[in-house]
Amino acid sequence: MDIKNINKTRTKYKIYTRTLFCAYKILGMVMATPMKIIESLKVIDSRAKFMGIKLTMIRNLLEKYRDDKDLLKEVLKALRGSHLYDLVLEACPYLKDLENEILEEELTGHIESKIKKEEPVEGCILEGEVPIFVYMKEYLRKYYFKDNTPKIFYDIGKDYALFLEVKTFEEMENKIKKYFGNMRVESSEPLIIVIENNKECENCKATEPICYFTSGFIAGCLESIADKLYIVNVEEIKCKAKGDEYCSFKAKRVARLA
């Protein structure tokens, strides 16, 4: 190729490059929405034949909006899965951090939608100051657990008692006194345990027994004392929350494990 043709090629290349940059600047002056930015990116991608120039133009285009994170997030979301998405991240590596933020926001939004509070379900009425555990239980019943509340708190109470590894009836009595109230045995056959002034239903008013955690705790203690040879079921048959003088619990072995 002679010098004349080389110079002619260089001139065409310069004109081509200047034209692209002028088009980019004109588009940049009117862009303010994600879709307009994407349209400009498409123009750059289709007309810039050299990768270096293409990446430079993309970088310069997006750099103007670097402080507008919300706008750039919308652009990235719209470009996902496309050829332009890869080009944008290659031209502007800092946008990878922005993409990570988007993923975190989407994950958080998904989780929040799963645990979003539904219409409240009334349980017992709290009359005056109550222990924080009681308030928490009723809050979870009202907004989240609903009809599953008795089983969930029964299981928690039972699991906690097993975790404590209670070995004797005396130790069980001391634990119940510490966490709930004074305990006494009303009957041995069937086994009926009475708890005076149970903290689980302190200042509560209900139409049915509500000491689910206490019931599970007693069951767990009895299973632990029996070295987990039996499954024990405990039912609250009287509850101070519904007007009884005290809370009482009936225990029954329902299965032998060994």
TrEMBL record:
It holds the Pfam family V4R. Signal peptide: none annotated. Residues 190-253 form the 4-vinyl reductase 4VR domain. It comes from the Archaea. SUPFAM superfamilies: Ligand-binding domain in the NO signalling and Golgi transport. InterPro entries: NO_sig/Golgi_transp_ligand-bd, V4R. PANTHER family: ARSR FAMILY TRANSCRIPTIONAL REGULATOR (PTHR35090:SF2), DNA-DIRECTED RNA POLYMERASE SUBUNIT I (PTHR35090). This is 4-vinyl reductase 4VR. It comes from Methanocaldococcus infernus (strain DSM 11812 / JCM 15783 / ME).
